Amino acid sequence: MSIAKMSKVTLLAHQTDKKKILELLQQSGVLEISDITEQLATEEELAGLLKQDDEQEAMQEVEKSMAEVRYSLDFLDRYHRVNKGLLDDLLAEKKALTITEVKQKVPQWAELSRKVYQTLKAVDEQLLALRNEETHLLNLQKQLLPWEKLPLALEEIKDSRKVRLELGTVPVSQLPVLHEQLQEDEVAYYLEEVDSKRGEAFIFLASYIADDELVQNALKQVNFNRHLLPRLTGTAAENLAKVEQQLLELEKTREQLLAQIEAQVQYREILYCYNDYLTVQQDRNQSVELLGRTDSTFLLEGWVPTAEVDRLRQKILAVSDSIEISVREPYEGEDFPVQLENKPFFTPYEFVTNLYGAPNPYGVDPTAPFTPFFIIFFGLCLTDAGYGVVLMLLSALGLKKVKGESVRNLLKILFACGISTVVFGWLVGGWFGYPLFGAPLLFDALNDPMRLLVYSLALGLLHIFWGMAVKFITLIKEGEIFAALADVGLWYGLIIGLLLLALPGTAGLGKNLALVSAIGLVLTQGRSQPTLIKKFFSGLLSLYDITGYFSDLLSYSRLLALGLATGVVSLTVNTMADLLKGHPIGYIAIAVLLLGGHTFNLAINALGSFIHSARLQYIEFYNRFYEGGGRAFKPFRFKTQHIEILSEETQGN
Amino acid sequence: MLGLDSGLLYAIFGAALAVLLAGIGSAISVGRVGQAAAGVVSEDPDKFGSTLILQALPGTQGIYGLLVGFLVLQRTGLIGGAPAALTVEQGLAFFFACLPIAIGGMVSAFAQGKTAISGVHLVAKRPEESGKAIIFAVMVETYAVLSLLMSILTLFGIQV
C-alpha cells in the first residue's frame, strides 16, 4: 500500500547514441521523460548552442506513412466492415513479436502498406469516376425514357428551312383543346402522341415556321412543356439500350473494383501491425522534442521508479561508454509522478483508485485500505447468492479467455465481489430471489430491513473509523503525534461518546467522553490561527464538522436500499413467473421471463453496486485522509494495440 | 365495482403513482441521454459502451418506482393472496409511503439525466475519463436511493 519512490535521472550523451538510447528507454518502459527545453532555454550560457527540430524529416516521413496506413484502414473499414461483437475486442489476442522480428518485418510491412495504399487509392479514384459516369448515364436515361417510342432518330429532330419541330408534354386533358385551337387557327400541323404517363401526354408536333406564332400561342394555352433532347445519333430506344448496356458494364467494373478491395482485406492485420510500429516511431520522434539538444550532444531528464534505477543504468551504460548519468531523489516537496505499488491481491483495485485520480505523491495510496470494504459493500448491495455465483462463473470464464491486463483486473475485482455477494446473499438474501437452501442463515433482509439498516450503518461507522485510523497512522509515521491525537483521537472520542450516550447503561460514560472530547476539539482545532480569539472561534466552529460525519454515516443506508432493490426486483420477476404457471405455453414463457428478468436485474444492479461501492470510498472514505492532486506516472514505452513487442534481454546490438 | 374497499383504492393509487412518476422521470431522462449518446456514437462507434452505462443510470428510478409499487401490491395482498380489507387510514398510509419515491424518484431522474448528458459530452472529449462522468451522475442517484429507502421503510412499518 504505497506510492512508489521515484528518482530523477539526468542523462548526457552523444547525438550518435540518441537513437539507441531512446529505443532502449522505450523498450524498458520505466522512465517518464520530463520536458527540459524550457528550463534550458533560460540558461544564458547555453544560448546559441541549443538547436531545435532536428527530427523534422524523420517525423514527416513517419507521419506520411501513418497517413497512408490510416487511409487504407479507413477505406477497408468502409467497404468491408467487420462486425465486431462487444466481446471481440476483449478476447482479441495481441500478436507477440520480439524486437528483432519486428525490425526484420518492417521493410516488408512498409512495402506492402505502400502497395495496398496505391491500389486502394487507384480504386478510390476509379470508383469516383465510375460514380460520376453512372450519374451521367442515369440522367440521360431519365431524359430519354419518355421518348422511347419516338420513331425518329434524335439527330433528325431539328428545324428544317420551313418546318419547325416541337417535343414536349401537355396534360392529357388539354390534348383535344390543342387540336381544336390549331384547327381553329387553320394551321397545317402534324401532331403525334408518342406516349402518355401520369396524365402527361408526350407529343411530337411539326408545323410550318410561318405559322410559328399561332402555334406557340396555342401551345402556351395548353401548358406545353418543351423537352430538349441530347444531341445523339439513333432513336431514343437505341440510345436507351446503349445506356443500359453501359450501366451494366459499369456495374461489372464496380464489381471488379470491389473485388480488388476485397483482395486487400487480407492485409488488414499487417496494416494494423505496421500502424503500431509507426506509432512507436512517432512517439520516439516526438520525445526528442523534450530533450535538450546541441549539435553533438543531448540531455535527457526523467523520472524512474527508484527500484528500477540500477537496472536501467546498467542497460544504458551498455550502449556506449561515453554516457553520463546522474540520479537524485526528489527535492523536498517536489512533485513527482505517482505510481501505485501494491501486493498482487490489491493491484486490480488500483483501477478503482485511478478512476478517481492519482493521490498526492506525498500522500497515502488508498487502494489497499479500501479494498476489503469495497468487496464487502459490493456484496451487500447485490445480496443475492445466485447472482454472486453467476458473477464468479462469468468472471472466471473471462479470466481464462481475456488477455488484456486492464480487463483482467476488472474481472479479478468482479470475482472477489462475486464471492462476497454469495456470502451476503446466503446470510440475508436468497438465491435468485428464492430461498433455495432454506431460510437465510442470519435473517431475511426483506422481512427485517431495520436490522440490516443498523448493520449497514454500523459497517459504515467501521469504514469511517478505519479511514480515520489511516490518517492517525500516517500522522504518527510522520512524527506528528500531537496532531494525530488532537485531529483524529479527539474525534474518535466525540463520536464514540455520542454513540454511548444513545445506549442505555453507558449514557453517563458517553456524556463525559463526548464532553471532554468536544472541549479538547475546541481547544486544539484552531491552533493554526494567529490570535487567541480566532483560535477559539475556529476551534468552536470545528465542532460543526460533526454534521459531516453524520451525513456520511447516513449515506451507508444505500447498502440496505440497493440490497433490497435487488431482492424485490427478483421477487417481482419470480412472482410474475408464478402467475404464468398452469397455462399451456406457460413453461416457455416462464423460462424466458426468469432468464431475461434475472439477467436484467443482475446487470443493472451489479453496475449500481460497483459504482456505489466506489462512491462510498471516494466521498465517505477519502474524506478522512485522502489527498489528491497527484499525476499518474506515464512512462515512455511502446503503445501498441495489435502487437505485443517482447523485450529481449539478451539483445546483442 | 371490484368489491374493493376505498382504503385499498388509495393504496393502489399510491402504487400507480410510484411506478408512473418515477417511470416518467426515468423514461424521459434515459431518452434524452440516449439522444446525446447517439450523437457521440455517430462520430465514434467505440464510445458505445461508456455512453450506454451513462444512459442506464437515470433508468434506476423507474425500477425503484416499480419496486415500491410491487411491494404495495404484495403488502396489501393484491398479488399472491386475497386483498386485505384496509381502512381509509391504512390506505392513505400506503399512499403517502409511495410519495417519496414517486416524486423524489422523478425529480432525481431528471437531474441525473442532465448530469449524464453532460457526462456524455465529457466522454466525447475525453474518453479516458468516463469513470468520472459516471461518478458525477451517481452523486445524484443518492437522493433516489434515499427516497426509495424512506418509501420501503414506511411500507414495512404499516400494520395490515
Radius of gyration of chain B (CA) equals 19 Å
The total tally of domains of chain B equals 1
Number of strands of chain A: 13
Distance from first to last alpha carbon of chain B: 22 Å
List the keywords.
heterodimer, A: 653 residues, Alpha-Beta Plaits, five-stranded antiparallel sheet, four-stranded antiparallel sheet, 21 helices, extended, B: 160 residues, mainly alpha, Four Helix Bundle (Hemerythrin (Met), subunit A), elongated
Description:
- The complex is a heterodimer of chains A (653) and B (160).
- Chain A has 21 helices and 13 strands.
- With 653 residues, chain A is an alpha+beta fold.
- Among the domains of chain A are: 71 residues, Alpha-Beta Plaits, CATH 3.30.70.2750; 285 residues, no CATH class.
- In chain A, a hairpin with a 2-residue loop joins strand 6 and strand 7.
- Chain B contains 5 helices and no strands.
- Chain B has one domain: lithium bound rotor ring of v- atpase (Four Helix Bundle (Hemerythrin (Met), subunit A)).
- Chain B is mainly alpha-helical and 160 residues long.
- In chain B, helix 1 runs antiparallel to helix 2, helix 3 runs parallel beside helix 5 and helix 4 runs antiparallel to helix 5.
- The longest helix of chain B has 38 residues.
- The chains are: A alpha+beta (653), B mainly alpha (160).
- Chains A and B meet through helix 15, helix 20 and helix 21 of A and helix 2, helix 3 and helix 5 of B.
Summarize the structure.
The complex is a heterodimer of chains A (653) and B (160). Chain A is of the alpha+beta class and 653 residues long.
How are the secondary structure elements laid out?
The complex is a heterodimer of chains A (653) and B (160).
Chain A (H helix, E strand, L loop, with lengths): L1 E2 L2 E9 L3 H11 L3 E3 L2 H5 L14 H24 L8 H4 L3 E4 H46 L18 E9 L3 H10 L4 E9 L2 E9 L3 H10 L3 E2 L9 H30 L2 H21 L3 E2 L3 E9 L3 H11 L4 E5 L11 E2 L8 H7 L10 H16 L2 H17 L3 H24 L20 H29 L3 H22 L4 H18 L7 H11 L3 H10 L1 H23 L6 H40 L17 E4 L7
Parallel strand pairs in A: 4-13
Antiparallel strand pairs in A: 1-12, 2-10, 2-11, 3-10, 5-7, 5-8, 6-7, 9-10
Helix pairs in contact in A: 1-10, 3-5, 3-9, 5-8, 5-9, 12-14, 12-15, 12-20, 12-21, 13-14, 15-16, 15-19, 15-20, 15-21, 16-17, 17-18, 20-21
Chain B lengths: L5 H38 L4 H9 L3 H16 L12 H38 L4 H28 L3
